[in-house]
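User: Please fill in residues for this 98-position structure.
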């Protein structure tokens, strides 16, 4: 506290510089804005992720696979999933009832 003297009064003023200083531990940089990887447009919270890469984020114009030249083959993955989950059933597994 520093003292400022006027005619007959002594006024105590707070040290403003020490009170308003921001500690480096408390200050955090704001997170960078999420942008489309193709056109660099800010997407905000409405971004789309593709299965080709989790790091890539797309705007509404580039969300479809043919607009961002996606290399992920969804049909092949679904075919493999069907083969694993649905085994082939043959007649020889059943007994014939007469």
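Assistant: Residues filled in for all 98 positions:
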């Amino acid at each position: 506290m520093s003292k400022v003297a006027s005619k007959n009064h002594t006024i105590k003023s707070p040290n403003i510089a020490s009170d308003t200083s921001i500690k480096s531990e408390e200050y955090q940089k704001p997170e960078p804005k999420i942008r489309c990887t193709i056109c660099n447009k800010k997407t905000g919270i409405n971004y789309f992720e593709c299965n080709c890469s989790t790091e890539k984020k797309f705007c509404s114009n580039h969300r479809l696979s043919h607009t961002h030249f996606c290399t992920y083959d969804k049909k092949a993955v679904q075919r493999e999933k069907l083969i694993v989950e649905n085994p082939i059933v043959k007649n020889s597994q059943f007994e014939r009832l007469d």
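For context: The domain at 32-83 is CATH 4.10.1110.10 (Zf-an1 domain).
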